[in-house]
Amino acid sequence: MLLTIDVGNTHTVLGLFDGDDIVEHWRISTDSRRTADELAVLLQGLMGMHPLLGEELGDGIEGIAICSTVPSVLHELREVTRRYYGDVPAVLVEPGIKTGVPILMDNPKEVGADRIINAVAAVELYGGPAIVVDFGTATTFDAVSARGEYAGGVIAPGIEISVEALGVKGAQLRKIELARPRSVIGKNTVEAMQAGIVYGFAGQVDGVVGRMRRELAADPDDVTVIATGGLAPMVLGESSAIDEHEPWLTLIGLRLVYARNVSRL
């Protein structure tokens, strides 16, 4: 079994692969204050009762692949792999790791590991050209060329950040539940805010993706647009630009990168 861990700014997603198939997944909050020992206890709690694994931490785990946008968490997870999974091959996505995706950026080290991993999975599953829209703490748009290169991207404030900002900065507004309203024209303040979030972000996706498509390919219809991230379902039904929804895109990318690097460890 391969354990994949995607550490985002807000949430950490874990996936368990049996071959090419994801057989279990978990989502937990990201807390940069957790120590390696605390993370190990958390992992044991999540995986200890899974029928495909043994009762002891590490039983049944044959490999680990990790990417993180939070350096302090990556440091602690490195210690977890050393102390608790010492005999298990572990791939941590960082400079020097083979991904198979050339990065066409002024400074490749600036690109978040999760965005590169998403590009790896997009190329494998759908080919290029492609655009990955990841709905996380930020909403990111990542362009993959027809040759499978990471061509660049767009970073915009995420859905939850926008909701929090409205609640903090609006004197008569408050934090609301993220849900689809009855109609675009809200009949109360909550529905009006929900409409602004859902339809506003759908419009943002359609607008940004349309411009990226025209830059990425001579025929914009050749570009496949893939949505991923925990908040993608909020926008899927309202955006006309999204072709595919793959909630486990980053975990699939981690599986692929693990396979490309494990023989080199």
Automatic annotation (TrEMBL):
The keyword S-adenosyl-L-methionine does not apply. The active site is at D114. It is found in: Cytoplasm. One of its GO terms (molecular function) is pantothenate kinase activity. A monovalent cation. Ammonium or potassium. Substrate binds at G112, A113, D114, R115, T189. ATP binds at D6, V7, G8, N9, T10, H11, T12, V13, T137. It catalyses: (R)-pantothenate + ATP = (R)-4'-phosphopantothenate + ADP + H(+). Pathway: Cofactor biosynthesis; coenzyme A biosynthesis; CoA from (R)-pantothenate: step 1/5. K(+) binds at D134. The keyword Membrane does not apply. Keywords: ATP-binding, Coenzyme A biosynthesis, Cytoplasm, Kinase, Metal-binding, Nucleotide-binding, Potassium, Transferase. Transmembrane segments: none annotated. Its EC number is 2.7.1.33. InterPro entries: ATPase_NBD (IPR043129), Type_III_PanK (IPR004619). Catalyzes the phosphorylation of pantothenate (Pan), the first step in CoA biosynthesis. Homodimer. This is Type III pantothenate kinase. It comes from Streptomyces chengmaiensis.
